[in-house]
């Protein structure tokens, strides 16, 4: 078993293509590549800690309420 720490994937975030200079022709291709790469490394018994954003909210309804 391995432990991984990760953050800020920004699945579905079109702005990440340009802002982060990601080398993909589309968001769908970016997402597919990230999933394929993840699956080639992370196994079913591994532990993963997400310590940052996973996706950009589509609207204010998807954002967590302020505490």
Task: Describe the overall structure.
By secondary structure, the protein is of the alpha+beta class. The protein has 2 helices and 2 strands. The chain has one domain. It has a two-stranded parallel ribbon. The chain is globular.
Rounded to an integer in angstroms, the radius of gyration calculated over CA atoms is 14 Å
Indicate the proportion of strand residues. 5-15%
| pLDDT < 50 stretches | none
Overall spatial form? globular
Show the helix and strand layout.
Layout: E1 3-6, H1 15-19, H2 27-41, E2 47-50
Short description:
Helix content is 30%, strand content 12%.
Tags for this model:
2 helices; alpha+beta; two-stranded parallel ribbon; 67 residues; globular
């Amino acid at each position: 078993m391995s432990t991984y720490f990760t953050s800020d994937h920004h699945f579905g975030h079109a702005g990440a293509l340009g802002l982060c200079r990601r080398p993909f022709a589309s968001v769908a291709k970016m997402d597919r590549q990230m999933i394929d790469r993840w699956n080639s490394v992370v196994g079913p018994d591994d532990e993963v800690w997400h310590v940052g954003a996973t996706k950009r909210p589509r609207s204010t309804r998807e954002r967590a309420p302020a505490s």
